[in-house]
Design goal:
Elements (H helix, E strand, L loop, with lengths): L1 H13 L5 H11 L1 H4 L7 H28 L28 H17 L2 H30 L1 H9 L19 H29 L6 H28 L1
Helix pairs in contact: 1-6, 4-5, 4-8, 5-6, 5-8, 6-7, 8-9
């Protein structure tokens, strides 16, 4: 059973960038009828949920950006391979063991608020819990095998999900702005486009698009795509 869970965690880790896509499609497809009219709280509540959702997404993105900028290169990776994980116990990793995944949680909650579908809350949170708990289990098994007692000491001292800021230990490194920007543009574009398309879908279903509002949304979509391309070019130039 343990080996099966480890394998499942590895699968979720390798496919973590693509597995949410069917869920996003399901939310969009099933929200057609419900978005024709405002929800039970009225249009005001729907708009408030959209604002709250964007704030939560931004908060999660700040957590991720800060984490990547404060820790040494190699601590975490966007690679599809789960191996050679470094053990960092300073900076964000001194107050919580999974700061990047905590950021993902806020982004997920934000997107679900923008979808404002009760059933989407249940499905989305269930997916997040299943995928991240399996990924964390597999990662921690690997870290324990690679770092032994050092990992055990760190995992006992630092909480997994609820930050304890009294445990903060300065990393001793300058903030890696370049690394943080290059690493976090892709996640920003992913959730930014997701949020924009959910908002566009709601407006379209309610016959508020096309029009001037549609032009503004389209401009945002194009801006995200340009940002994605520019970051890819920057990465290639930096490696040259």
């Amino acid at each position: 059973m343990a080996s099966l869970l480890d394998k499942a965690g590895g699968v979720f880790f390798r496919a973590r960038s693509f597995l949410p896509l069917p869920l996003i499609y399901l939310v969009v497809a099933e929200s057609w009828d419900s978005h024709v009219h405002p929800g039970m709280g009225g249009a005001g509540v729907d708009e408030a949920l959209n604002v709250v959702g964007l704030v939560l997404c931004l908060f999660g993105a700040v957590i991720r950006f800060t984490t990547v900028g404060l820790v040494p290169a190699g601590t975490s990776s966007q690679s599809r391979k789960m191996n050679g994980l470094a053990l960092t116990t300073t900076g964000p990793y001194s107050v919580v063991r999974h700061p990047l995944y905590l950021g993902n949680l806020f982004i997920t909650l934000g997107l679900l608020c923008i979808a404002h579908e009760p059933w989407a809350y249940a499905v989305g949170l269930a997916y997040w819990l299943l995928s991240h708990l399996l990924i964390v289990r597999a990662e921690e098994q690997l870290l324990r095998a690679q770092h032994g007692a050092a990992f055990d000491d760190w995992s006992r001292a630092v909480p997994g999900w609820f930050p304890s800021f009294s445990k903060w230990k300065k990393s001793g490194e300058a903030f890696g702005w370049k690394r943080a920007v290059q690493r976090e543009v892709n996640p920003l574009v992913a959730w930014g486009l997701g949020a924009t398309l959910l908002l566009m879908w709601e407006r379209f279903v309610r016959r508020e698009l096309p029009g001037p509002l549609g032009t503004r949304y389209l401009t945002v979509v194009i801006a995200f795509l340009v940002l994605l391309i520019a970051n890819k070019v920057w990465k290639k130039v930096s490696r040259a």
